[in-house]
Sequence to fold (459 residues):
Amino acid sequence: MSDTARTSSHDRLMDSLAGGLRPVRRLPGPAFRALAWCAAAVGLGLALMPFADLEALRIRMAVADLRYAALGAVLTAVAAAVAAFQTSVPGRASAWALLPLAPAAFWIGASGAGCLRDWAVPGADPADMHQTGGCVAFLLAVSLPLSLVLVWMLRRACPLRPNLTAALAGLSAAAAAAALLVPFHPHDATATDLALHALVVGLVIGANGLAGGRLLRRG
Amino acid sequence: MACAVPAGHDRPTPQARDPFGWATVARPAAAASGRTERMSRDQALACDMAAAQAGDAEAYRRLLRDCLPVIAGLARAQGVRAEAVDDVVQDVLLTIHRARATYDPARPFLPWLRAITQRRAIDGMRRASRRPREVHDPIAYEAEVDRGPAPGHRLEARDRERVLARAVAALPEGQRQAVEHLALQERSLEETAALTGRTKGALKVNLHRALKALRRTLGSGSADRDEAAFRPGERGTHDV
Fold:
């Protein structure tokens, strides 16, 4: 391309962009928007609370590993949401993507400890297939709207790595769904249960990474 | 970041630029002032972007224009091939437009622009690497023009130099001096006049005649005529 042609093509594009310029409302900071999404997830949890067996929840929360697993899921959801919003803004450090690693490790570790307890302690109440299927359906049903809301919020920014941002969004939604499942989880964790949960979480992350990545790229 | 520099005011004029498109400060003792200048440039860009977010089209146009050399420099530094730089520049301009709501004027502008440019440069290089290369097609591979010098290029160039040197040497004294001083050594008329003792007018006429003679000698491509032209005593024109 000659210098003249190059200049005129750049000029045309700049004129076109400047000519159609409209005022934009500056996006709030990523942390603020992450907290807004977390508030929406908490709102969903509060809406579901009337259907939960709070007495059973209180008893389960007295067990350390179940309590830590729930805490790990909450921390992972918050950290992954913050990471997703941070990576959706140009110029923010890509190291933000590592933020959810530590809480996710804590979450997986505490959930694994629940399985060990189930093997070690006689008389534990493992889940049957019907209950496990209910958990999977719950995780999927809650992850979907949370993912949609998150992707919709992220589309307003400009993720330069859409797949990474969408995968973080998937992790956040799946972790939030797992945290919201705690009040409705009527049995102790087993290896099968944990594996299914991990599968669903992986599925949600993968689906977000693929579909969400495309949505974010198109936005 | 407060917009202490009013838009369009105190903006450095175009001058020598570093690889990233920023004006370089020639004075050696100005390293600190260079940093200050860069900060003020960043501040000016940040102010323009803040104005663009509010809908100021003129500030936006100025911002995009100021960003062009920066984007091109960053893309080249990222390894984008020269012929693909313009595509990256346009892609970045479109991304700036789409992402302008994400810019926070409290933060420096250049890291924001750099992140967009680097990402778009990588995207562009990935797209180029995915594109089917014609070297996989045997016919296209054989028909591919090698942009490098041909094998006998240096020999031919040396031959051309020798022929030209002989043609110049065969010119009458005054014309040869005019060609050597004015055309080959690029001296001024005054310098050449002082060196040769000829007037400026005579030098001009000699140069004109010399070029005419050289064109006639070298332009025909006939070896016989070349040989004839180099023969002493057969000079077609005379000195002034």
